[in-house]
Structure formats: structure tokens, C-alpha cells
Amino acid sequence: MNHCLRSPGVPPGQKQSSAKALPFLDRAGRPDYKGFTLIELVLVMTILALLATMATPAFSMFQKSSRLQQTAITALSAMNRARAEAQRYRTLVAVHFGDDIAMLSQKPKPCILPAYGEMEISCINCSNGDGCGWLSFYPYAPEFNMANMWDHRNWYPCTSKKKVLTPVPLKFSSGVRIITCAFRRSNGMNILAFPYYQKSAVGEIKRHCCAYDKRGAAAGYDYQNNFYYALVLDETTGEHLLIQVGVFQSNGRPRILPWRISHIQLPWASAPTALNTSDPLDLIKKIDNYPDAETWRF
Fold first, then answer.
1. Helix (H) / strand (E) containing 295
2. Which of 38, 138, 218, 219 could form a disulfide with 131 if both were Cys (CB 3.0 to 4.6 A apart)?
3. Distance between CA atoms of 114 and 81, rounded to whole angstroms?
4. Is 65 exposed, middle or buried (0-12, 13-18, 19+ CB in 10 A)?
5. Across the strands, what pairs with 265?
6. Regarding beta strands 273-274 and 263-264, do their DSSP bridges make them parallel or antiparallel, or are they unpaired?
7. CB atoms within 10 A of CB 44
8. Cα–chain center distance at 298
9. With contact defined as beta carbons under 8 Å apart, do 76 and 112 qualify?
10. What is the rounded CA–CA span in Å between residue 40 and residue 43?
């Protein structure tokens, strides 16, 4: 007796095609086909699509937060290297930060800042002083002949490089900006400002660099030529991190601070202006539209 299994529909005595696979049989001898039905497949695909939709915003926010942190770490690394080079060469060393020129209302003087997404470390020329003492830091200012220490143009920033220490610029994430600034805390407010900032092509350089003296301390005095803080900003979300660049006459290391900016101080205003919490980009707008503050102290 022939005990070979036949596919359903094949009459007795007729040869079965070898190309046709035999189905599995259940205990009752009926074909037992394995797999998914169309309804089951559509249901699974719908659930996966919903999960992907829910996960995308969270993943996007994680990416943005990650690039902000990474840029802050890169900036810290550049600042620490600049401090070390200033102590090594016994001279003033600056870090210049490239910015998204399209976002700036005042375009900076060309050929000084690196390209957007890059940082550059350089030894800088100084017309007077070594940056270590009170009012002893005057960056080389070819546009002006600063005759005395009380010249109102003592805001002049670091623009003249005598030796570039990073032939290949350091890179940071696109979509992130680095703005140097002044900062203080008062009555529960975290206040940002730009004292002695001239709204000009040269003046804009001041908001994109920081400098160290030969001891590794932040150069300058009273924010006149150099800002002691840096804001790392995500230009699409307004999220930011604050870095303390250094301290005047102290060789404290740069560090990331735990505070978020809540107010901005405009020149000669009686009180700081609170940021609009309903607009995440309000801080960026106020920074880019900051008025001239050439002779204003913070």
C-alpha cells in the first residue's frame, strides 16, 4: 500500500508534481497552513506606525539636546586649551566662534571670525598692557588711535591675530550658536547683557570671542574688551546652556553653569526685561536686536 501523502485535490493514481510543496497536516489530517492573515498584518503595521509617530518628537528633542551638550563640551575644550596656550606663550590668547551670519542683524567684520560651525584659537596682538591688571587690556585697534585709558572706544575687541594655534578649526554642530556675553544673578533673576557693545561690524566681534591673559585668567576688566560668559544656543528651539568663560584676575577653569537666562538687561533701562516664556525664540530675537551700548556699564 502506498502511504505517501497527497496534496488535497490530487486524485488517487495521479502523480503529484514535485514542484508543489506539501502542506503540514494537523492531527486530524487536515492541511495546517502557517502565517498571518491580511487583517493581522494591517493591524501590526498600524500599531508600528503609531509608535513611530509618538517616538519621533522625543527622538528629535534628544538629538537637539545632545548637539547642545556636545557643542558646550567642545567650547569648554577650546577655552581650556586657550588658557593653557596663554600660560605657555605668556601672552594673550583668544577663542573666536563662527556664527550663522544670516541670523545677525549686524554683520561682523569679515576675515576675523571662522566659518559657521567652527572655532579658532589664536595669539592676539595687544596695543597696550598684558590683560593682567586693572584697565590693562587694549587689543590692537588699527581703526582707532586710542590715546589714553579713558578713551570711550576701550570696548574694542580682539580682532588682530598674530599666530593661529588651530590650523584646522575646531568643529561644532550646525543649528547651534555660541554668543559671548555678560551675566549676573539678582533677586532670583538670571540676567544677560552686552555692556560696552558697539553695534557695528567691529563691535559684533566682541560677542563672538573670549580671551585669556598669561596667567590663564579672563582678560580685561568690567566687560570692556572681553565677556566672561558664553551662551550656547539652539537656534531652532531656543534651548541654551551657559558657560562661565573665566574670572578676571583669577585662573578658575571654564565651567557649565546650571542656570537658564530669564531676563535681559537693555542699556540704561531701569529694570531687566523678562523673556516671553510663550515664545521659545524670544531670547535669540532680543540678542540679535540688542541696541548699541558702547558707553554703558552693566
1. none
2. 219
3. 17
4. middle
5. none
6. antiparallel
7. 11
8. 25
9. no
10. 5
H or E element at residue 196? none
Length of the chain: 298
CB–CB of 204/106 below 8 Å? yes
Strand-pairing partners, residue 208, are none
Q: Is position 36 within any domain?
A: no
Classify the C-alpha dihedral 269-271-272-273 as positive or negative. Answer: negative
Structural domain total, the chain:
1
Cα atoms in the Cβ-side hemisphere of radius 13 Å centred on 208:
29
Per-residue pLDDT 10s for the chain (298 aa) are: 455 555 555 556 555 555 455 555 556 666 655 666 778 788 888 888 777 766 555 444 444 578 899 999 999 999 999 999 999 999 999 999 999 888 888 899 999 999 999 999 999 998 776 666 666 678 888 777 665 556 656 788 999 999 999 999 999 988 899 999 999 999 999 999 999 999 999 999 999 999 999 889 998 878 888 999 999 999 888 899 999 999 887 778 899 999 999 999 999 999 999 999 899 899 999 999 999 998 898 8
Q: With CA atoms as reference, report the closest residue to 157 among 205, 122, 193, 124.
A: 205
Asked if residue 43 is part of any domain, the answer here is no
Q: Is residue 22 part of a domain?
A: no
295 within some domain: no
Residue 142's nearest CA partner among 119, 101, 112, 167 is: 112
CATH of the domain at 171: 3.55.40.10
